[in-house]
Design goal:
Layout (H helix, E strand, L loop, with lengths): L8 H4 L4 E6 L19 H12 L5 E4 L15 H11 L4 E6 L6 H15 L3 E5 L5 H5 L8 H20 L3 E4 L4 E5 L15 E4 L4 H10 L2 E4 L4 H17 L5 E7 L1 E2 L3 H13 L3 H16 L13 H4 L11 E2 L1 H13 L4 E5 L3 H26 L1
Parallel strand pairs: 1-2, 1-12, 2-3, 3-4, 4-7, 7-8, 8-9, 9-12, 10-11
Antiparallel strand pairs: 5-6
Helix pairs in contact: 2-3, 2-13, 3-4, 4-6, 6-7, 7-8, 12-13
Length: 374
């Protein structure tokens, strides 16, 4: 167990936060034929949201899929589903994934402002630039090349932030324009929260630059602590130049069992029973998207077959083992500047409860011990 000091003792003092992927699409969070006691319907998700907020979760992220793809035959729309979860909970913040290009930013800003008012300031968005070409072309929308998708997303975020915070919103961009627009009511304003939080993902240089310039949070695909450090450094360097700071989340698939061997057996079974055709289809689609980046640093560029069984490389984060092993691993990421874990699970209700009961208390103990040491 490494004991090098945290990057920044002051930011380390903030407890790690936790989010979970909302299973609002069918097929669960692994593309595998293993039994998954997880349901994509509303009743299950309502129960899950209430359980999660009582087991240490701060956020839930509703996925966005518009058509059947790679094991997800059915999908609930993310913004309406997020509002339903906000209404079913008291403290949980719910992040709706949205696609620029399929939303007008002013309409989306209005929608979220209403959801934010209704929920007492708990709405957030995750701006997804898009990797799945069919979602655009089958709806008759243009599919932009990689760099242009990120340019559009950046402008989308600037527009949404302007409309949420200004009384005479103005923006004159390449994709969007605003002329003396005043949104009323505006979203809820709170301490350290001038507007609903804006998340984004991506691994490419385009994504890192965009996060540094405009986003509140950067979600990284699953990766090693060393790989995450590089992304945090790149995004933070850009943010510093623009007088900003960005917080960091990392995707991880959680398999917590009483012993490491039990957890490894579950992982082996997930991969052994992978839906090979769906995983390979997903792999070729996302690798094609990643190779279209200028420097080949796109998401999934170096993902192996086993990594792709979990959409966002969640196995690579290594949250697989006993509670002590997982908590220790989480602290390793925190030392490198990670603020939040975005978790997926096999059997959501059981695994979320296990996390809250067995793992979270150890995380908090380790955080306290580390702060006392520094």
């Amino acid at each position: 167990m490494s004991h090098h000091p945290p990057v920044d003792p002051e930011s380390f003092a903030t407890p790690l936060q936790f989010a979970y992927w909302v299973p609002n699409v069918s097929g669960g969070l692994v593309v595998s034929k293993i039994e998954q006691r997880t349901d994509w319907g509303y009743d299950y998700n309502k129960q899950l949201a209430q359980l999660a907020e009582n087991n240490g979760f701060d956020y839930a992220l509703s996925q966005v899929r518009y058509i059947a793809s790679y094991g997800a035959a059915y999908q609930h729309e993310s913004t309406s589903f997020s509002l339903a979860l906000l209404l079913a909970t008291e403290r949980l913040k719910v992040i709706a994934a949205i696609h620029p290009g399929l939303w007008h930013p002013g309409v989306l800003a209005k929608w979220i402002a209403t959801a934010d008012q209704i929920s007492g300031g708990r709405a957030a968005i995750n701006v997804v630039s898009g990797w799945f070409k069919d979602e655009f072309t089958k709806l008759g929308e243009p599919w932009l090349e990689h760099g242009e998708r990120y340019r559009r997303s950046e402008e989308f975020i600037r527009y949404v932030r302007e409309i949420w915070t200004s009384e005479h919103a103005e923006l004159n961009g390449d994709f969007y324009r605003l002329h003396d627009f005043d949104l009323k009511p505006k979203p809820v304003v709170g301490p350290d929260r001038p507007h609903p939080e804006i998340f984004q993902g991506g691994n490419s240089t385009d994504a890192r630059g965009m996060a540094g310039r405009v986003s509140d949070w950067y979600f990284a695909n699953g990766n090693t602590p060393e790989g995450i450090s590089e992304q945090i450094r790149d995004v933070s360097d850009v943010a510093t130049v623009h007088g900003r700071s960005v917080r960091f989340g990392v995707n991880g698939f959680f398999i917590g069992r009483d012993t490491e061997r039990e957890a490894r057996d579950v992982l082996r079974e997930i991969v052994d029973k992978a839906d090979r055709e769906a995983v390979e289809g997903f792999g070729s689609a996302v690798k094609q998207a990643g190779q279209s980046t200028g420097d080949q640093k796109g998401m999934w560029q170096d993902s192996e077959f086993a990594d792709l069984v979990q959409y966002n490389d969640g196995f690579r984060t290594g949250l697989i083992g006993s509670p002590e092993q997982i908590a220790t691993r989480m602290l390793e990421y925190k030392r490198r500047g990670v603020n939040l874990f975005l978790l997926g699970f096999l059997h959501y209700l059981e695994d979320v409860e296990y996390f809250g009961r067995e793992v979270l208390p150890i995380v908090r103990e380790l955080e306290t011990a580390e702060l006392e040491r520094v």
